[in-house]
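Support case: guanosine-5'-diphosphate-alpha-D-mannose complex. Customer-provided input:
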Amino acid sequence: MESPDSATTGSQPGGDDRHAEVVAADGARALVVIPTYNEKDNLPGIIGRLNQALPGIHVLVVDDSSPDGTGELADQLAADDADHRLHVLHRTAKDGLGKAYLAGFGWGLARTYDVIIEMDADGSHAPEQLGSLLAAINDGADLVIGSRYVPGGRLVNWPKRREWLSRGANTYARLALGAHIHDITAGFRAYRREVLETISLGTVESAGYCFQIDLAWRTVQAGFDVREVPITFTEREVGESKMDGGVMTEAFMMVARWGVASRMTRLRRR
Ligand SMILES: Nc1nc2c(ncn2[C@@H]2O[C@H](COP(=O)(O)OP(=O)(O)O[C@H]3O[C@H](CO)[C@@H](O)[C@H](O)[C@@H]3O)[C@@H](O)[C@H]2O)c(=O)[nH]1
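Agent response - structure generated as follows:
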């Protein structure tokens, strides 16, 4: 089965049945996109937990030719999946988190999924908490962000240095853009299909983690309903983060650019 049952009537985002259930309780009609680079030791666990938590959900692993064999392992897991709900997209080289997600979104939008989800492979995002993101989608939200920085959100074992970097990046983005999102860099989120069809993915330039800010900002500017639900973010136990200096520089420069552009637009409108 390449895509979910298209006979099921999902809600039409923006339409009259806006509050009708989009995603079934078992996750059917939703696609989780998981970008991977050297996540061989994490992948089977995260797929198993997803299947346990949401037995109807589809998953797309987007692997950038990981040298540790993650891509081949994903192929094996997909071949073993009797329900054909696990899919794999191979890219030829490591090209950043943002580019991997764009490829995954393109794959999902070419099929009939109503909701497309972002999730890390390393266990930082708990599949068991995905239900609360999907509940907010069913409640009418267009983009739901699993947030570490709203009441109820938690960080477990994240190094203090990473926490302050992340909090600093969020404060900087909030001040520069004026977007009222507490965790705009978060990578655990659920998009209604209509959002991704609307926000001009073809013009996205951000390649690294700044991609998260970019897409949330585009979604806010397009007037969609963006909500945050608290999550517990747990530091990976296996493997390494791919965060580096280039990722931070890209985010700093791009957010400054978007902030100036948005202020200019507001001034011109006055
Ligand atoms: N295909 C592909 N996947 C990648 C690449 N870079 C990272 N990934 C994958 O993207 C996920 C997140 O990467 P990590 O390196 O584990 O992220 P982190 O440092 O823990 O960062 C977390 O915090 C960021 C800042 O808040 C978040 O933006 C990010 O999503 C994540 O939650 C992992 O599944 C990792 O394998 C890449 O170039 N290509």
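The pocket of guanosine-5'-diphosphate-alpha-D-mannose is lined by residues 35-37, 39, 62-64, 94-97, 100, 120-122, 124, 166, 185-187, 209, 212, 241-243 (CB under 6 Å).

Case will auto-close in a few days if no follow-up is received.
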